[in-house]
Amino acid sequence: MTQHIVIIGAGQAGAQAVASLRSEGFTGAITMVGDEAFVPYQRPPLSKAYLMGTFERARLFLKPEHAYADTGCELLLNTSAKTIDCAAKTVSLNNGRVLAYDQLLLATGTRIRPIKCPGAELKGIHYLRSIADVDRLQPEFATGKKLMVIGGGFIGLEVAAVAAKHGLEVTVFEALERVMARAVSKPISDFFEGAHRAAGVTIITGTGVEGFDGDGAVTAVRAGGKSYPADLVLVGIGVLPNSEIAAAAGIDCQNGIVVDKNARTSDPNVFAAGDVTWHQGRDGQWLRLESVQNAIDQAKHAAAAMAGKPKAYNEVPWFWSDQFDLKLQIAGLTRPGDVQVLRGDPELRKFAVFHLRGGAVAAVEAVNSAPEYLIGRKLIAEGARVAAERLADLSVPIKNVV
Ligand SMILES: Cc1cc2nc3c(=O)[nH]c(=O)nc-3n(C[C@H](O)[C@H](O)[C@H](O)COP(=O)(O)OP(=O)(O)OC[C@H]3O[C@@H](n4cnc5c(N)ncnc54)[C@H](O)[C@@H]3O)c2cc1C
Questions:
Q1: Where are the domains of the chain?
Q2: Is-contact 152 180, C-beta < 8 A?
Q3: Closest Cα to residue 292, out of 102, 51, 71, 11?
Q4: Ligand 1 centroid to 191 CA: how many Å?
Q5: Domain 114-235 class?
Q6: Sheet holding 253-254, edge to edge
Q7: How would you list the strands of the sheet with 169-174, edge to edge?
Q8: Same fold, 114-235 and 325-400
Q9: How are beta strands 256-258 and 253-254 bridged, if at all?
């Protein structure tokens, strides 16, 4: 019988796993090891309301520190796991302590992908992943400062929106032909580019950064053969999975730690959940998701399996992004070849793009349209088939489209 579960990584997935292990009836000991100084916290507000200054730090924390002790979980903060010995079933920590486990959960998440170009080490070049990163960036936000954002993904654009509201002069460089290209369809990219430009943000697509200039601190960004004066830089060019500790222990890794539908790795006593996993989606394709939904749902499934009640993970992925007054909500994953159906009017800043695959709803991207998002998510889960004309017809209430 499992007596001791060790969790490496005290983030969204780790915190969920602690709660779910108890709700699934696991009564043994739990130890959670986290290398940050804080109890598990939610990251989404970091690039949104928390950066804006309208969201208190205390609200970031998923639970107060005592809640972990109350549930019998030993929480080791400022502590990193260095090695795993799968044969001996032990984890070695940076402080010399060795934890013996019966089952292990890897919830190590991702880390920022550093930019590699001349000048990348200059002062004034920031990244955004943690509370500590916001604490460094926020004091630099002052009206009139020139902020160069490298990378037009969710985080880059969210920071651009907050900075524009703070009165900074913002320029976004995106190497691909459109912003958020890996995550959203072209109509959504086009709409958000327009919204940013209307708010005074300069967006330069199809342009990679060649380097940074400055003597100690950054003063310019070189891109597309030109030099752009900069007071401040935010780099948001993606993340890398923290899977090295698993790979070094002989656990199968691809673009993350490989897990099955029960969040089990190639070692039967080791599970993984959250951003770090390489897993199969509903359509059988292998993927790594960076989302709160996946961290929570996969952690629930891992906990259930560790408590001896496995159930297959088959959730519809969902994401969101807040930029200016625009709430983008996405359910499902889009694929090339999907039939796109527009419902609503982008001019009114309230519309949705549905994606049909083989006549069934496969994904929805909704802007300021919560009902379309919620019904769309349900239709995706059900594999519902919908006529494109009915989806596009606003005189048909969204709840009656099927
Ligand atoms: C700025 C920002 C905005 C975001 N906005 C959204 C959003 O709007 N919507 C959305 O769905 N998702 C968003 N995300 C993504 C979301 O936060 C992640 O998907 C989620 O946090 C993943 O949870 P996780 O537990 O897998 O990883 P994390 O929450 O990153 O937790 C992993 C923890 O493990 C620690 N760790 C790693 N290795 C070790 C080790 N060896 N020993 C000890 N500890 C270790 C890490 O330091 C970290 O604290 C955002 C992320 C960021 C950074």
A1: 4-111+239-306, 114-235, 325-400
A2: yes
A3: 11
A4: 28
A5: alpha beta
A6: 253-254, 256-258, 277-280, 286-287
A7: 125-126, 232-235, 146-150, 169-174, 202-205
A8: no
A9: antiparallel
Other C-beta atoms within 10 Å of 285: how many? 10
Quote the pLDDT of residue 1.
Answer: 61
Q: How many CB atoms lie within 10 A of CB 125?
A: 22
**Given this model, what pLDDT does residue 238 score?**
96
Q: CATH says 4-111+239-306 is which class?
A: alpha beta
Per-residue pLDDT, 262: 97
Q: Of all protein residues, whose CA lies closest to atom 31 belonging to ligand 1?
A: 11
> Which residue's CA is the closest to the ligand 1 atom numbered 5?
44
Q: Is the pLDDT of residue 215 over 90?
A: yes
Question: Residue 110 corresponds to which tokens in the numbers above?
Answer: 């991702």
Q: Give the chain's length.
A: 402
Residue 123 pLDDT more than 70?
yes
As a whole number of angstroms, the distance between CA 389 and CA 149 comes to 40
Shortest-distance Cα residue to atom 4 of ligand 1? 44
Ligand 1 within 6 A of CB of 236: no
In CATH, the architecture of 325-400 is 2-Layer Sandwich (3.30)
Please give the Cα distance from 169 to 199 (Å, whole number).
10
Residue 49's pLDDT band, with cuts at 50, 70 and 90, is: very high
CB–CB of 179/148 below 8 Å?
A: no
pLDDT tens, 321-330? 999 999 999 9
Kindly give the number of the ligand 1 atom that is closest to the alpha carbon of 82: 41
Q: pLDDT > 90: what percent of the chain? A: 99
Residue 309: per-residue pLDDT? 96
pLDDT in the model for residue 402: 87
Average pLDDT over residues 208-222: 97
pLDDT bucket at 275, cuts 50 / 70 / 90: very high
Cα 12 to ligand 1 centre (Å): 6
- Give me the pLDDT at residue 353, please: 98
